[in-house]
């Protein structure tokens, strides 16, 4: 597990992060990167128009199982990201991951371990984790 992409990524972030090394800088850059991800998604709708958002109340019959519930839920997105929007969102998500790794480094946390713990939590609780 020592060669996981998560561990390599976290090490590379540690190697290149020079300017914003203070945890205060990192946290604010992380929050800024989150806003940029959101902005890129919104611009895919409002400027490009490659995707549309049709949000409305999601109703499901009362007497259905949890497994059937997903059939009644929607992500409210129609259309497909164009190559330009997809590239922009991927770049913003990558930047967001960079600052997430930087936070982990500053606090001496292991991203791979965090992900493994969360995956086990989801696997164990399954539908009862209800995110």
Identify the CATH architecture. Orthogonal Bundle
Rg on CA atoms, Å:
19 Å
How many domains? The number is 1
Distance between the termini: 27 Å
CATH class: Mainly Alpha
Portion in helices: 55-70%
| Helix/strand structural class | mainly alpha
Looking at CATH, the homologous superfamily is MazG-like
Protein name: Putative house-cleaning noncanonical NTP pyrophosphatase (MazG superfamily)
Topology:
Layout: H1 5-16, H2 23-48, E1 51-53, H3 66-69, E2 77-79, H4 83-106, H5 111-125
Antiparallel strand pairs: 1-2
Protein name: Putative house-cleaning noncanonical NTP pyrophosphatase (MazG superfamily)
Describe the fold and architecture:
This is Putative house-cleaning noncanonical NTP pyrophosphatase (MazG superfamily). The chain is mostly helical and 131 residues long. The chain is 62% helix and 5% strand. The radius of gyration is 19 Å and the shape is flat. It starts with a helix and ends in a 6-residue tail after the last helix. The relative contact order is 0.17. The mean pLDDT is 91.
Task: From the structure above, extract its key features.
single chain, 131 residues, mainly alpha, Helix Hairpins, two-stranded antiparallel ribbon, flat, Putative house-cleaning noncanonical NTP pyrophosphatase (MazG superfamily)
